[in-house]
Design a protein that fits this description.
Radius of gyration: 19 Å
Number of domains: 1
Strand content: under 5%
Shape: globular
Number of helices: 11
Largest sheet: none
Structural class: mainly alpha
Length: 235
């Protein structure tokens, strides 16, 4: 399912340009020295990817603990259902019960810290901005975290989010160089594609959890692996 992380990143970057674009446009990059600017952008992206990888590691550990109790299949099915449900729920209702609302105070602190860093131009500024940027709430990041959780392993979850981060790099870099290049019509079309893709990935997670014996999509071996993991977890 690692390919879904890359596609999440590529599609999600269109969303990122809209949501995090203003941050990218304000990055204090050196406009005169191209070599220095490239290093600054690399540092910024490394900061974001580090945050994503760290989140993947944490949720991968949670997924691994559930896997030890023989719940990997149920977890995949549950995550698939959550992905589909999140898309089908009306936006107004979703916003009313948005679970990220309790984090608004923390998000405010992250934004304030980022604002302070944007005024600086030292060597570590760009990495810190990227790191803080990765902590901001984002629906596509949540979906990717679900994927990391379903991997059932710490390093697997970290790799999943690392690949997700790599997928966001191309468009975010273009946005930093030339600004908001996506027209309203193009953005609307992309925003319509994203929910469809999330539903497809949700269905794939459900199929993976069912273990129907379909190669690469729903391998039956997953059941045997889960049973072995559960036995080891009991010793």
């Amino acid at each position: 399912m690692l390919y879904s992380a890359l596609i999440f990143g590529l599609l999600g970057s269109f969303h990122c340009v809209g949501m995090c674009g203003p941050i990218a446009f304000l990055l204090p990059v050196d406009r005169k020295n191209s070599a220095k600017r490239v290093l600054q952008l690399i540092s910024y992206h490394l900061g974001r990817i580090f945050t994503y990888s760290l989140l993947g590691l944490v949720f991968g550990i949670v997924g691994k603990s559930l896997n030890l109790f023989g719940m990997q299949q149920q977890l995949c099915i549950g995550i698939g259902i959550l992905m589909i449900t999140a898309i089908l729920i009306p936006t107004k209702l979703f916003n009313r019960y948005n679970f990220s609302k309790p984090m608004y105070k923390t998000v405010g602190k992250v934004k304030n810290a980022m604002g302070a860093e944007l005024k600086k131009k030292n060597s570590g500024t760009f990495f810190i901005i990227g790191f803080l940027n990765g902590l901001l709430p984002c629906g596509l990041v949540y979906m990717a975290i679900f994927g990391a959780l379903a991997t059932g392993g710490a390093w697997e979850g970290s790799l999943y989010m690392f690949i997700f981060g790599l997928g966001t790099i191309p468009l975010m870099t273009i946005a930093i160089y030339i600004g908001n290049f996506i027209t309203g019509k193009v953005k609307q079309r992309i925003l319509k594609v994203i929910p469809v893709f999330v539903v497809i990935v949700g269905i794939l997670f459900i199929l993976r959890g069912l273990g129907l014996g379909i190669p690469y999509i729903s391998p039956s071996e997953m059941i045997a692996v889960e049973q072995i993991s559960a036995k080891h977890g009991c010793h």
